[in-house]
């Protein structure tokens, strides 16, 4: 590894779909953090995979260098195959000062980085083995990957207090608690008319169609209520046909499915104009969709789990069942005047999640790892047995 320039780090970001950010929390984090680090003079390289095979990704994006590599188009292999290609590419060239690996599922490649003496921080994400899309084999894999991430990483990054507590209790492993940021925006609502919508005139869901995001519970609760305003559902999933059919079967004529919305301006206006944003995510730690919603001033009713309470605190209302959702939908429509006060409370919570501060935390961690080099002693990765499987 070449001598460290104290003013500029070479930082490689690995394990996601990369940039430009179009999908998911990891990609949002890489774009927001990476562009800030690049603006501060660091040389940031992001390994990316391309959903559009007809056009190449740009070689630079927001000051970051982009390396496009292929991936196998299967749910169980897409991430791993791309990460494997990324690590091979990294090791074949002058090594970076630090690698940041996103997703503990990529832990099988950490020993190769360790052998090359590349300091590595792993952003462990949420409790992936709890996701309903994985069968018994997938859950066993993710639990093994968690343990490997603990053993072979020089630092672990958790984006929520609940995740940090899990790694402390389950592995006696310290983590760097670095949450995502919330973009505080005033997007307006002028484009809602393109969709036949008006400010305060609809309920909203934005989520991938996965069991642990509870889109079906929101739709079932909504249709079981006497709601007059439509429910707008934004989202889809490439590998969830059965769950998608279930969600659609629970809908009635008041539910409007928009599919995926890649137009960020329009999506921000949907958040800003909603009477209520219904957030059902439950296992992924701090969720960027939730942060973007409160940054746009959306009143939020959320699935009752520690990650969501950590973000919303008293600014949110909470539900667990379809019956809970129905009651909250009815309550919101009965008192539309409460929307302005709830929107202000959301913005107040968003102020505590600042992307500039997040980038500074990443910068400090990368500088520390680059200076210290790979750790000689790390947690063993053995489970304490204190957390039920």
TrEMBL record:
MF terms in GO: glycosyltransferase activity
Q: Which intervals hold domain Glycosyltransferase subfamily 4-like N-terminal?
A: 24-169
Q: Which UniProt keywords apply?
A: Glycosyltransferase, Transferase
Give the SUPFAM superfamilies listed for this entry.
Answer: UDP-Glycosyltransferase/glycogen phosphorylase
Q: Where is this region: Disordered?
A: 369-389
Which stretches does UniProt call biased (Basic residues)?
Answer: 374-389
- Asked if the keyword Disulfide bond belongs to this entry, the reply reads no
Q: Which GO terms describe its biological process?
A: carbohydrate derivative biosynthetic process
- The answer to whether the entry has keyword Electron transport is no
Determine the domain of life of the protein's source: Bacteria
What the entry lists under InterPro entries is as follows: Glyco_trans_4-like_N, Glycosyltransferase_grp1
The name under which this protein is listed is: Domain of uncharacterized function (DUF1972)
